[in-house]
Amino acid sequence: MPSFRNSPPPSLEFVDETTDSITLVFKGELRTDSVSKVWGKARKKTSSRLFSTVIIDVHNINYCDGTGIAMLADLLLETQRRTNVDITLEGLKEDFQQLLDQFDLKHFKPEPESKAKSIPITEEVGLTASQFLQDLKELISFVGEAFYSLWIALKHPSTIRWKDMLLTIERAGVNALPIVCLICFLMGLIMAFQSAIPLKQFAAELFIADLVSVAMLRELGPLMTAILLAGRSGSAFAAEIGTMKVNEEVNALQTMGIDPVRFLAIPRIIASIIVTPLLTLFANFMGLVGGWVVYVSLGFPTIVYINQIKSAVTLTDLWGGLFKAGVFGLLVAGIGCFRGMQTSMGASAVGQSTTRAVVSGIVLIVMADGLFSVIYYILGL
Amino acid sequence: MTIKNDIVIQASALTCAYGTSVILDNINFEVRRGEVFIILGGSGCGKSTLLKHLIGLYQPAGGSIKIIDQDLVHANQQEHRRILKNIGVMYQSGALFGSMSLLENVRLPLEEHTALDTHAMNLIAHMKLSLVGLGNFTKHYPSEVSGGMQKRAAIARAMALDPEVLFLDEPSAGLDPITSSELDALIRRLAESLGITFVIVSHELASIFAIADRVIMLDAETKGIIADGPPVTLQQSHSNAAVREFFNRGKHNNITQVED
Ligand SMILES: Nc1ncnc2c1ncn2[C@@H]1O[C@H](COP(=O)(O)OP(=O)(O)OP(=O)(O)O)[C@@H](O)[C@H]1O
Ligand SMILES: [Mg+2]
Known about the structure:
Order of helices and strands of chain B: EEEHEEHEHHHEHEHEEHH
Bound molecules: adenosine-5'-triphosphate, magnesium ion
Largest sheet of chain B: 6 strands, mixed
Oligomer: heterodimer
Number of strands of chain B: 10
Strand content of chain B: 15-25%
Number of helices of chain B: 9
Number of domains of chain B: 2
Distance between the termini of chain B: 46 Å
């Protein structure tokens, strides 16, 4: 016998149609892939308020799968929807009757079509606000926990998982080097090029070097590195830890008496604190190289560029930038791990916490950068 | 009305391997329509592997698989899609979509493969879930129900399209005895009244004796089938003592427990 599915679609006829009664005669095979037409037609008849007596005749149905059964059930359920109707099913073969009998149609409540529930705007505002506060509370408690664990870890370096940390240094640091170098090279280049035109009007192209070096070392080097780190590694941390959370691996750690923050977050945070300033060094250098390309192409010798930079920036600028970078690394890794730990159940949860890790990572970086500007200004750096 | 005896799945000289490590070597068997076909064997002997090859997730390293008159190994995309429409699969881990409610999980194959309207699809999905006792949990998400409930929902999803062949990887693992025997009754009923073919990986001896028409037993050492036949025959008179013991072990244990 060939495949089951090559049978023709079932047919439906209406006979004995009077003003208030009708008989629906089904013929053929009721199957998932061919039943949809007769289903719609039949439902129209049974649900029209004209008929108070409906007979469903299935003597000539010789096959009826689960979907066919569902259709018959749907037609019979009409009696639930309105009271003044009498629907009878005639001639269903024993085998199929059994399948229908599995459902207690008297008490079967079919799924109401789900409508998106709309919440009044006041409620939504309140909900969002309370979620925000809750989020803030969790963040603060995570910060406390992380600093405590960090403190303990630094006091007892043997408890740090060095292998994990080295692995993270490789993934978040070494592997990020090409993209950091490329972006910062281009930034230096573009910055120099764009400023060359207005500066030329004042015959001040010489100061392109000052501009590029101050901007890169003090601001853009650390900032760009941190933003790239947030996109590359902050999200990865959130996804890794989030997946572990979803798979109950974090619970497993807890029940083994292992502190998940110490086990998962600390190696990543330490690695980021180490790696971000190092990457920033490369970023600064490549930015300066980008500026140099423009400088030289404008006809200045290299030595002028170097001397100009020497007079423009001090070592304090460099150290200030690198310190900032370290703090950014802490923030990015911390928030990445925090979002990972926050992950709720469900498949989209990991995606959500990854997104939130990147977004709040970048927001934190920018806020911290603003704070640093103020502090450095006050300190006169 | 069961139309038995025509072959639904035929595996010839089938070899399954991951890379260079061969898991199953040169095995032959066929499954007939309306049969409840059980794959048995120790943990790690390749039952799930065999199942994944039968549904076309992996290409066999050798041999051929014919399923519902189609060559699975050489099927083009369209033929493959047709085969997939006619089979239902429940994975060992359930593999429900976490971002969808149970009802939406069951409705998904209907949305993709049929022309039914939303009302009809919701009703069918609801009925399938009621069949496995989850009629009151349609709106829940997989993460909000227990492990056994996820398993049952996965069975409901596999049945959504009323496929001709259902592949179930350890359907009764993690279920309580009552739910598990209800599931057995459901499987028998579907096989008998609709002629649905079941290919089931299972360890539950009680359940195997209740539902199986035929059993094959895989073995990790020989990488092949060491027993093939109805469970009662294998239990009583199989030439391989290890096979007889496998089937009798359960009984012995039961007896000693009763005596205790
Ligand atoms: N993706 C894979 N890559 C390589 N080897 C695999 C892979 N999946 C399974 N294996 C190997 O194949 C063998 C059989 O695995 P399989 O999952 O089929 O076992 P099983 O019989 O289903 O066991 P269980 O009863 O525990 O589920 C095992 O030795 C396993 O190590
Ligand atoms: Mg398995």
